[in-house]
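ok here's SH3 domain-containing protein:
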Amino acid sequence: MRTSRPAALAACLAVTAAIFTATLPSAAATPDPAPTPDPAASQPVTVAQPVTVAQPVAGSSNVRVEGGRIVLGDAPAAIGSTEINQRSGLAELTPVHFAALTSAVVVGYTAAIPNGMSGSVDVRSWADGRWSEWTEAKTGTPTALPTASSQVQLRVILTAPPTGGSPSVADLTVQPADKIAAPRMSIQAAPLKSHVFATREGLVGGTTANGHVIVSRDHFVALPSRRGLSGNGSGTYSVKVCTASRCAFEPVWDVGPWNTKDDYWNPSATREMWKDLPQGKPEAQAAYQDGYNGGKDQFGRTVANPAGIDLADGVFWDALKLADNSFVDVTYLWTGDGGRGTVSISSGYLNVRNAPNSTGAVVGMAGKSAQVTVECQTTGETVTGSQGTTNIWLRVNTGMYVAKAWISAGTFGTC
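and the structure:
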C-alpha cells in the first residue's frame, strides 16, 4: 500500500489506537483445529467428542504455550502491508480428524484479552486434496465449513498495540456438528482471475502478518484478508501475477493493502465485508475510483490508491520488472482446479524461462514454497535440483517453463 513513507507512517500511528478495539469473547465450548500445509505429515487427532487442541504446528509465529494457553509472544511491534503498527501472533494448531463427514463444527475457547487488544479463532477444512480458506469461528456456535469434511484445523490470531500486556486464548476444543448441509464454497474449473492495482510493499526488515521477516528483494504478496493467508514458509494460498509479458508465482504471506477483511475474490454470498461489490473488485479500488464507503477503508482512512495487492520488492522489480505501481492480472490459485506443483527451494526464487532450458530468456519468477499452475510437461535440458535429476520441464503459462527438478509435483500430460 505504498503512499509516501512519512505520510503512511503518520497515518498508521494516528489510527493504531482506534483499530485495537475488538475483543474476543470469553467462554468455553468446542473449537476447531488449525491447518497445516500437509495434513498427512502432522498426525491429525481422531475425535468423536469435543477434544482440546492447543499445540501449534509449523507455520505458527510469535506465540507461546503456557499451561494450555496460547499467548502472544514477545516479538516487537511491526508495520506490515496495512500500515498498522502492532504486535501480532499466529498459531496454527494440530489438525483434527472426525469419524465421519460434517458440514459444520462447534468451536469452544476461553479468552483473556486486555483492553485495546484483539483475537480470533479461525477454522478450515480439508477436502478434495486441499485446504479451504479460513473462516472465523465464534465460541459455542456452529460454524459452517466451506465444504463437508472429516478433517479440520484451527488457527488463533492475536494482536496488540506496541506496548502493554499479551492477549491469550485457552481451552480450545472442537467437535463436529450433527448435520450435513450444502457446501458454501465450490471449487471452479479454473481459479478466479481479476485485474487489480498492485503496489510495492517494501518494508525490508519488517514482519509480515504470518511472521515472515522481510528481506531485500523478497518474494511474497499481500492480500487484504486473512482468509487466504498462508502460514510462515507455506504456499497453501498462492497467486499468479502477470503483466502482458511476465508472470510471478508467489505465496500469500501478508495482509493488506488497506483492509484486512476484504476477500474480494469470493462471491458476495461468502465475502466477509463489502457484499454489495462485484466479485473481483477490491474495496479500496471502489473507494478510490467511485467514492464507495465515503472513499475510506475499513479503518476510516482515506484511500489514496486503488490497490488490491501488495508485491514484495523481488516480485515487483525482478519478477515483473515493474517501474511503478500499476494494474496486473492476479489469479488466486486455491479457488480453482487444475495442475499444480510446489516450488521446492530453500530460499529466494526459481526462474521462469521462455524455453525448457537454462539458456531461455527469464520471463518471470516463482518464490519459495509458491504453488505454480501446470498446463503440461515436456522434455528439455537435464537439471539436478531438490527433486532429483530430470529433463522434464513444466509449462506454467503460455510460453513459460520451469525445471521439474525444483518442483514437487506429479506427472502431467505432454505438451
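+1. Confidence is low (pLDDT under 50) at residues 4-43.
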